[in-house]
Design brief:
Length: 275
């Protein structure tokens, strides 16, 4: 079973999205299962992991509702206020839903780079680990040196790095990101999504521009800790679904069939415990 480990849906009339904004004409409309289904079929993708797009509990409920009725959605990564005084209870309640497999606190949005180490978050992270829920880490390169401290505090917490930590490909910032992602990849329980890189490439989607970042992630994490994802429909800002999928298939052409099966589905099934 091939899995797209990172995609979004949104319905703008729900009213709790601060992004996308109207100037983003490729994204400023509703996106739902009927829009994605033909792209999945064309690429031979059997299922997806549906990821939150705005920090509200209402959106998480909306996504879980989609998962209950849409066969290709195999899991939801939702949101909860992990800094709330009753955050652990909120995680306990969310963990009862069999479609919820993790939470994503949108760490990149906080001005404090060390937000994840705040003491008030400890009960929530402990609850995630207790229930076997994944922390999807929406981070940027500036957060990579801090994440090991979080893992030291919560050694049982499984972390999936979204979008390769969003390296600044357009600026050619490779060395610092490469060093820090390699250090993080040595930690057990840390996985990484091969997704979102075109959005960081500033319009240059070529293998020459993006390829070194893909190759480094594969070398650091290995196929059993890499999850391929589209980041659709955000991907539309940079290109189309079929081309991103084809580039990643081409970049992994030298791997064995078993390794490619992991990258394009097996790792996601294991990490998220997909049905």
């Amino acid at each position: 079973m091939r899995i797209d480990a990172h995609q979004h849906f949104w319905s703008l009339q729900r009213g709790d999205y601060s992004w996308p904004t109207p100037d983003l004409t490729e994204l400023f409309r509703n996106f739902g299962p009927a829009d994605l289904a033909p792209l999945l079929a064309a690429a031979g993708i059997d299922g997806t992991v549906l990821v939150q797009a705005t920090p509200t509990a209402a959106e998480t409920s909306y996504l879980l509702g989609i998962a209950r009725h849409e066969p290709f959605v195999k899991a939801v990564i939702g949101w909860a206020d992990l800094a709330a005084p009753d955050a652990a209870r909120r995680v306990d309640l969310l963990a009862r839903d069999p479609w919820l497999k993790g939470l994503r606190p949108m760490i990149q949005a906080f001005p404090d780079d060390r937000w994840m180490l705040r003491a008030e978050l400890t009960p929530a992270f402990a609850a995630l680990a207790r229930h076997g829920l994944v922390l999807d880490a929406l981070v940027q390169p500036r957060h990579l040196p801090i994440l090991p401290d979080l893992l030291d505090r919560h050694p049982d917490l499984v972390v999936v790095i979204d979008h390769g930590a969003k390296p600044a490909i357009a600026r050619g910032d490779f060395a610092g990101w490469a060093r820090d992602i390699a250090v993080l990849a040595r930690r057990e329980g840390v996985y990484c999504k091969l997704s979102g890189l075109w959005t960081e490439a500033g319009g240059n989607r070529s293998a020459e521009a993006v390829g070194p970042y893909i190759a480094h992630l594969l070398a650091c994490f290995g196929p059993r800790r890499i999850l391929w994802g589209s980041d659709w429909p955000v991907l539309r800002l940079a290109g189309d679904y079929a081309d991103w999928h084809a580039q990643c298939r081409a970049m992994t052409g030298g791997y064995s069939k078993a390794d490619r099966d992991d990258i394009f589905g097996g790792t996601a099934r294991r990490v998220y415990g997909l049905r």
